[in-house]
Amino acid sequence: MIRIQQENFDIGAELEALVKTNHKVGGLCSFVGLVRDMADDETIGAMTLEHYPAMTVKALEKIEAEANQRWPLEASLIIHRYGRLAPGDRIVLVATASAHRKDAFESCEFLIDWLKTEAPFWKLEESKAGSRWVAARESDDQASQRWTETTDVSVKARKT
Amino acid sequence: MKLLYFAWLREKIGTAEEEISPPETVQTVAELLDWLKNRGENYESALADLSVVRVAVNQNYVKLDSPVASEDEVALFPPVTGG
């Protein structure tokens, strides 16, 4: 399930709802991304997330489908927020549920790694020095590329 | 052709979206970007370093040699930083 929204989400309620009626689930894994108050020694006052709505939905659905192909998942959830957020605010929730923990752990990590390099979101950080668009990290590309050895070609195609 | 710009590309170019009609000689993404660069200093500066420009045609990532057509939605944006 994919949700892109401005409003906050309740982590406990979301996780509970995801597995409530499915008792084949033996393990539920989640990742929550939060707004930090520091970036490169600058104090961050706020962060604005911009996105490309039509493509965001497509990209996240594709990423989720890929995870479901690679691991035997009973349930999966991606919630990503956009708009202006403050330090400590939640940005993203990724959750995967499976019969066994290994599949849940791996697929959860896969989803957040891929999301970071594929989903069309951009962060604008506000500090006393002004506003600054966050640059993509090489380490995020490497984290994502770890997963490309097997099937998908979209990451390679992106590197033009 | 509908063009969309995001993040600092939107700021540098000065608009979030526009309808354009490139000449028939523009058949690929690379040709489109070359044509756009000649539309003004704002485009030239935004597209000066293509290593930090990603392109999506109809919401899918594409390479520079991919074809573009008049009915396409083409989006230009920096490498993504969500999550």
Compact description:
The complex is a heterodimer of chains A (160) and B (83). Chain A has 160 residues and is of the alpha+beta class.
From the coordinates shown, what is the CATH architecture of chain B? Roll
**Second CATH tier, the architecture of chain A:** Alpha-Beta Complex
- Main β sheet profile of chain A: 5 strands, antiparallel
Write out the CATH superfamily name of chain B.
Beta-grasp domain
CATH superfamily placement of chain A: Molybdopterin biosynthesis MoaE subunit
Sheet with the most strands: spatial strand order of chain B: 2-1-5-3-4
Fraction of residues in H or I helices of chain B: 25-40%
Main β sheet profile of chain B: 5 strands, mixed
Sequence of secondary-structure elements of chain A: EHEEEHEEEHEEHH
Give the CA-CA distance, first to last residue of chain B. 30 Å
Overview of this protein structure:
The complex is a heterodimer of chains A (160) and B (83). With 160 residues, chain A is α+β, with helices and mostly antiparallel strands. Chain A contains 5 helices and 9 strands; from the N terminus they run βαβββαβββαββαα. In chain A, strands 3, 4, 6, 8 and 9 form a 5-stranded antiparallel sheet that branches. Chain A has a 4-stranded mixed sheet with strand order 1-5-7-2, with helices on both faces. In chain A, strand 8 and strand 9 (130-133) form a beta hairpin. In chain A, helix 2 (53-70) packs antiparallel against helix 3 (101-118) and helix 3 packs across helix 4 (138-145). Mean pLDDT of chain A is 92; it is low at 152-160. By secondary structure, chain B is α+β, with helices and mostly antiparallel strands. Chain B has one domain: Ubiquitin-like (UB roll), CATH 3.10.20. Chain B is globular. The relative contact order of chain B is 0.28. The mean pLDDT of chain B is 97. Chain A binds chain B through residues 33, 49-52, 54-55, 58-59, 80, 91-92, 112, 115-124, 133-136, 140, 154, 157-158, 160, and chain B through 4, 6-8, 50, 54-56, 59-64, 73, 75, 77-83.
